[in-house]
Amino acid sequence: MSNPVFERIDADIKATPVVLFMKGTPVFPQCGFSARVVQILSHMGVPFKGVNVLEDMEIREGIKEFSNWPTIPQLYVQGEFVGGCDIITEMFQSGELSGLLKEKGVAHKADA
């Protein structure tokens, strides 16, 4: 069964190495959790695409079903779901996020 929303999400995460489904935009996040993930990615110098789920209710609901993850933001690296705000924060603090980005071939600044 094809799902047009899933196809749009899949196209987004395949077209860009790092995609953040978030509330608001990278320049103007509209929730603290989205803002924290943007801050981490920006601090690490990771180029990423932000998808504002507030502008598209189909994507907002569809992404939760697509990933089987109930909350937003959601980070994808090279088409693979990594996690939400708490997971990304923990991975950043432990150095695991940098390791994952390196493993996936995504350019970024060293931990600091």
What is the succession of H and E elements? HEHEHEEHH
* CATH classification class: Alpha Beta
CATH topology: Glutaredoxin
Q: What is the residue-averaged pLDDT? A: 95
What can you tell me about this protein's structure?
By secondary structure, the protein is an alpha+beta fold. The chain has helices at 4-15, 32-43, 57-67, 85-94, 96-103; strands at 18-22, 49-52, 74-77, 80-83. Strands 2-1-3-4 form a four-stranded mixed beta sheet, with helices on both faces. Strand 3 and strand 4 form a beta hairpin. The mean pLDDT is 95.
Which characteristics define this entry?
4 strands, 112 residues, 4-stranded mixed β-sheet, alpha+beta, 5 helices, Glutaredoxin
Summarize the structure.
By secondary structure, the protein is an alpha+beta fold. The chain is 47% helix and 15% strand.
